[in-house]
Amino acid sequence: RPVVAIVGRPNVGKSTIFNRIIGDRLAIVEDKPGITRDRIYGASEWNGKPFSIIDTGGIELDDEEPILKSIRMQAELAIEEADVIVFMCDAKAGVTGSDEEVAGMLYRSGKPVVVAVNKVDNIGRMDNIYEFYNLGFGDPIGVSGSHGTGIGDLLDAITDNLPELAEDNYEDDVIRVALIGRPNVGKSSLVNAILGEERVIVSDIAGTTRDAIDTPFEKDGQKYVLIDTAGMRKRGKVYETTEKYSVMRAMKAIERADVVLVLINGEEGIIEQDKHIAGYAYEAGKASVFVVNKWDVVEKDDKTMHQFEQKIRDHFLFMTYAPVVFLSAKTKQRLHKLLPVVQHVAEQHTKRVQTHLLNDVVSDAIAINPPPTDKGRRLRINYVTQVTVKPPTIVVFVNDPELMHFSYERYLENKIRAAFNFEGTPIRLFTRRKS
Ligand code: GDP
C-alpha cells in the first residue's frame, strides 16, 4: 500500500480529518479489546485504491520541543516516507509563517502535496481558502473536520496522486518476513544472526522494491525474503531518536510481509509502543510471531519463560494467536527455533479449509451454544465458507447480520481456531445476509 502522511501545525485538526478518513474501519477495530485508542496510522481505501495513512501530528516529541522544530521533523519524515503528503492548514488562521516554511520544504522535495484547508465550516469561509493557492500546490481543498464536509474531495485528490505500485516479483512460495520493533531491540542483530546461520544460503540478487533492501535466502528447502526497512540502514538521523517515528517504517515493512516478527526486548520488557506496532500487523492481516530477544541477559529459572509469555498475552489481547519465541540474536542461543515457527505460521496464513469441514465445526458450535436472539428474533446461520487466504477470511451467511454480536463472532472464531489451528494468523470473519 502506498503511504499518505498528514502534516501541519498543531491544532489545525489533523487528527479529526484523519479519523474522518479512517472512518468506520477504526470504529470496528476499536471494538477489539487491547487495541489502543490513540491511533496515528490506519488503512483506508477510496475509489478502489487502498492506502495507509499516518497522522504525523500524533507522533509526539518531548514537551519542550518547540513547535516549529516538531513540524519540521514531521515534514522531513513525510518527505522521506510518504507517497502523497496532505498538508493541513487552518482557514481561520490563514497562511502562517510556519505554513510557509513547511510548504518550502515540501515543495523542494518534489513529492505530490495536497493542501487541505480545515475549519471551512460554513460557505462564507470559502473565500478564505484562496490565499492558500500561494503555497504553490494547486487547488487547495476546503474541508471541515467537525462537519465532515469536503472529505470526499480530499480523498479524490489523494487518490489522484497515488503512485502505481510496483508489485513485488517474488514467487508465491517465498515467505516474506519483516522484523519490527523499537530501536535497539535487536532487529539488525537478528537479521545478521539469521543470515549467518549454518546452512542458510543467501542469494546475492538484491531485492527489487523501491525503498527497501530485501535479502532473499533459503534454508532447509524453504525460500524466504527478509524485508529490511530503511530504518535498519540509515542510522543516527534525528527523528530516529524519537521512538514513534519508527512506526511509519514498520508500517511499510508490514504491508509487504507475509510474516511479521514482533521483536520484544527481553531485558526491558514490553512497553506501550510495542503494542502500537503489533496492532498494525494484526490490522494488516499478517501472520505474526513474537520474538523475545536478548534472552541471554535475562536471569531465569524454570518459570521465567512461562511468566514472560503470560505478560505478552496480557498485553496483546488481540493477538493471542501469535506464538512466542525466546532467543538471543547475540549468542544465537535458541535461534534455530525461529525459522520453523515462521514456516509454520506462514502455512496457517495461506491455509484453506474445505467448506464442508468448516460447516461441520460451525454446526457443532451452534448446537453447543445457540446464536443470540434480539427482540424475539434469533440469528440463523445458514452457511459458512472461506473466501480467501492471507489472512484466512471466512464469510458467515445469516438471516440478518444485525443479529450477529461481536461476542458470538468471537465464539465462532475460537471454535474454528480450535478445530483447524490457524496458529499465528489473524482470521477475518464477515457476516452477510443470505437466507
Ligand atoms: P535495532 O535497532 O533493533 O536494529 O537493534 P540492534 O540490532 O542494532 O541492537 C541494539 C543493541 O542491542 C546492540 O548493542 C546489540 O549488540 C544488542 N543486542 C542485540 N541483540 C542482542 C541479544 O540477543 N543479546 C544481547 N545481550 N544484546 C543484544
From TrEMBL:
<feature type="binding site">
    <location>
        <begin position="293"/>
        <end position="296"/>
    </location>
    <ligand>
        <name>GTP 2</name>
    </ligand>
</feature>
<dbReference type="GO" id="GO:0005525">
    <property type="term" value="F:GTP binding"/>
</dbReference>
<dbReference type="InterPro" id="IPR027417">
    <property type="entry name" value="P-loop_NTPase"/>
</dbReference>
<comment type="function">
    <text>GTPase that plays an essential role in the late steps of ribosome biogenesis.</text>
</comment>
<dbReference type="Pfam" id="PF14714">
    <property type="entry name" value="KH_dom-like"/>
</dbReference>
<feature type="domain" description="EngA-type G">
    <location>
        <begin position="2"/>
        <end position="166"/>
    </location>
</feature>
<keyword id="KW-0677">Repeat</keyword>
<feature type="binding site">
    <location>
        <begin position="228"/>
        <end position="232"/>
    </location>
    <ligand>
        <name>GTP 2</name>
    </ligand>
</feature>
<dbReference type="InterPro" id="IPR031166">
    <property type="entry name" value="G_ENGA"/>
</dbReference>
<dbReference type="InterPro" id="IPR032859">
    <property type="entry name" value="KH_dom-like"/>
</dbReference>
<dbReference type="GO" id="GO:0043022">
    <property type="term" value="F:ribosome binding"/>
</dbReference>
<keyword id="KW-0547">Nucleotide-binding</keyword>
<feature type="binding site">
    <location>
        <begin position="55"/>
        <end position="59"/>
    </location>
    <ligand>
        <name>GTP 1</name>
    </ligand>
</feature>
<dbReference type="InterPro" id="IPR016484">
    <property type="entry name" value="GTPase_Der"/>
</dbReference>
<keyword id="KW-0342">GTP-binding</keyword>
<dbReference type="InterPro" id="IPR005225">
    <property type="entry name" value="Small_GTP-bd"/>
</dbReference>
<feature type="binding site">
    <location>
        <begin position="8"/>
        <end position="15"/>
    </location>
    <ligand>
        <name>GTP 1</name>
    </ligand>
</feature>
<comment type="similarity">
    <text>Belongs to the TRAFAC class TrmE-Era-EngA-EngB-Septin-like GTPase superfamily. EngA (Der) GTPase family.</text>
</comment>
<feature type="binding site">
    <location>
        <begin position="118"/>
        <end position="121"/>
    </location>
    <ligand>
        <name>GTP 1</name>
    </ligand>
</feature>
<dbReference type="Pfam" id="PF01926">
    <property type="entry name" value="MMR_HSR1"/>
</dbReference>
<protein>
    <recommendedName>
        <fullName>GTPase Der</fullName>
    </recommendedName>
</protein>
<keyword id="KW-0690">Ribosome biogenesis</keyword>
<feature type="binding site">
    <location>
        <begin position="181"/>
        <end position="188"/>
    </location>
    <ligand>
        <name>GTP 2</name>
    </ligand>
</feature>
<dbReference type="GO" id="GO:0042254">
    <property type="term" value="P:ribosome biogenesis"/>
</dbReference>
<feature type="domain" description="EngA-type G">
    <location>
        <begin position="175"/>
        <end position="350"/>
    </location>
</feature>
<dbReference type="InterPro" id="IPR006073">
    <property type="entry name" value="GTP-bd"/>
</dbReference>
<dbReference type="InterPro" id="IPR015946">
    <property type="entry name" value="KH_dom-like_a/b"/>
</dbReference>
<comment type="subunit">
    <text>Associates with the 50S ribosomal subunit.</text>
</comment>
